[in-house]
Each structure stands twice: as C-alpha cells, then as structure tokens.
Amino acid sequence: MGDRIYSIDSMRIVAMAFVVAIHTDPFRGLGAYGNTLNFLIDSTARFAVPFFFVTSGYFFARKTETREPIGYFADRAATIASIYAFGLLLSTPVFLAGAIVRAGGDTDIASIVLRELIEFTSPLTLVYYGNSVSEILWFLPALLFSLGLICLFVAADRTAHLVPVALGFHVIGLLGASYTMFVDVPFEVRDALFFGFFYTSLGYWLHAGDWRPNADRSPSYLGATVLFGALHVAERYVLGYALTGESVGQSVYAPSYSIATVLVTLSLFAFLLSRPTLGRSTPLPSWGAYAVGIYVTHPAVLYVLELTRDLLEGAGYGVENTILWHLALTPATFFGALLVSLAAHRLGAIEIGGSHLPVPSRIRNHDSG
C-alpha cells in the first residue's frame, strides 16, 4: 500500500477535534443532562489519542521498509523533539504569566516565577512524562520513547515479541488507570512504557504483519467500530457509576482508557485502511496536516481562555455555567490554536509538516520575502 491513505489523513483532523474536546470538558457541571452529554462526548473521544499512536507506529513500519530503521528513528525523534520544544516555548511564558495573574498583587513575582520554573524543569516530568509544563503535552515524549522501544525490537530482530511485550506493560497501565478496584499500581502509568508503547506497537504490527484489511469487509469493520464504541461507553459507565454508586448528576467519570478503547481503535483503523480513498474529495486530508500544530498550541490557547473566564468570574460575570460558554470554548480553542500555528508558520518560526523549532535562516527568508 504505497499510495496516500486519504482516510487516515482525514481522520487526523477529526481526531484532533476530539482531543481538544477532551480537554475543554464541554457541558461538564451543567446539571445531570450536561454531565451526561460530557460523559458521552468524552467516552466517544477517547479513541483519538490511541489513534495517533497507532498511526505513528503504522507509518514507522511503512517507512522502514525502504529506510534504515535507526536512521529513520533519529529523523523522527528530531522532529518530535522540535514539536515538543515548540510547545514548551509557547506554553511556558503563558503559564508563567497566568500564575502571576492568579496570585494577584500580594505575592512576590520573582518567587512565583522561580517556583513555577523549578516545577517546569523537573527532569523526569520534563523529559519522560511530558507533563511538567502542561499535562496535555505528554503525548510527544510518550511517542518518542515508544518509537524508540520499537526501534530497539527492530534492530534486535525481535519484532515477533513486540506486541506481546507491549501488551504486558499495557495491562499494568490499565490496572493503574481504570481498574484500580482490583490492584493498586503505585506509579504513573500514562506514559510511553505503559500506554504509548502498546498502541504504537499495534500500528507497527498492522503494517509489518501479514494481515491486510479487505475492502469487501469494510462494512463489517465500520459496524464493529460502532458496536465497540457502544461497549466502550457502557464499560466506562459501569466503571465510573455502577461499581461506585455515583450518579451522573453528582460527578463525571474521567479516567482515560480501558479494554474497550483497544477494540474501538483497532476496528476504526481497520476500517480506515480498508477505505484508503475515503475523504479524498473533501478538504479533510489537507486539513489533517494542521493537526500537529493545533495539538501543540492548544494548551496555551485553552489556558488563556480559561484564565479569561476566571477573571470574568472574579469580576462578577458568571460565565462558567452558561450554555454559551460551553458551546464556544471548544471551537474557540480549536480554531484559536489553528490561527496561532498558522501565524507561527507564516512568520517562519515553524514549518507545518516539518520542524517546529524557530530556525534563524527560515525567519530571515520570511523577512526578506
């Protein structure tokens, strides 16, 4: 399958919209009906992050058919690191300014900045977990380390063991995230080893293995996606409400991923592979190129919007629990992030589809143009 897969490129921008929706929490806190809608949106959206891991693993396998794996991984690592660095460079001053504003005028600014910078530069959370500045940026280090683990298996010619080993770690991750009633896992599991490695390995296996989705079975894959999607919602309801005695009106169940997430992601990806031209006649494949830019800029955009909300609340304007705010926050974050990434691209600070680190020569070329 050497041609462009329009269906996957189309799904990139759709999945990114769901990622933004996870972080904006639409309708949460607006009574039982609002919480129910939030729960349904969040449960539906949970395929999105695994989809990006699977996609990365799939194309890693595809590219390394004709390229030396370690060399290709080095190129991918440089790109991912540049994207992460850009996200940090954008988010850090925004978050620092927000911390100062939230503290008001009674606290020494220097002490606030020092405290925040110490937290931001904690080596483990900065380099590995990716949540030192923003929880949202964790995906990028997780992807980098996940691809690194796959590269080690490829270099050692042990790819037959890749998925079983990754599955073993992911089971621990699931127990520590969504099935805590069975066992207490005393460490962070939303990372490369316990989460990203498994889904990225699945993507690698989908291309490197012998199985190929059949176009004639495309309706079956789509039906399975819908069925597993419903199962996913039901599973999360059982975990979050039936087993705890809570009600939707009291709280919203938020833990991230579960067993059914795997089934939804696999069936959806199989459907997309079985329909490679899906979306070709629409703008969606082209818009897919902007997904990375939206992802890496939306933490800062969302933070500014939420800070504005808090300032309005403090001034006596109750906007947080209004329908208008909840209807506007997700599209404002999505398109605001798109505008920021496009502006950075036009200024020559980043290159969409390439490096996300400011390069002086690129900026000079932009200025001279």
From TrEMBL:
Q: Which GO terms fall under molecular function for this chain's record?
A: O-acetyltransferase activity
Q: Where is the Acyltransferase domain?
A: 5-341
Q: Does the keyword Lipid biosynthesis apply?
A: no
Compartments (UniProt record): Cell membrane
Give a Gene Ontology cellular component term annotated to this protein: plasma membrane
> What is one Gene Ontology biological process annotated in the Swiss-Prot or TrEMBL record?
enterobacterial common antigen biosynthetic process
| Keyword Transferase listed | yes
Keywords annotated in UniProt: Acyltransferase, Cell membrane, Membrane, Transferase, Transmembrane, Transmembrane helix
Q: Which Pfam families match?
A: Acyl_transf_3 (PF01757)
- Kindly give the membrane topology term recorded for this protein: Multi-pass membrane protein
Report the transmembrane regions from the record. Answer: 12-31, 43-61, 81-101, 136-155, 162-180, 192-209, 221-239, 251-272, 284-303, 323-344
**Top-level taxon of origin:** Archaea
What InterPro entries does this protein's entry cite? Answer: Acyl_transf_3_dom
Main subcellular location of this protein, as a coarse class: membrane
Q: Which PANTHER family match?
A: O-ACETYLTRANSFERASE WECH (PTHR40074:SF2)
Name by which UniProt lists this protein? Acyltransferase
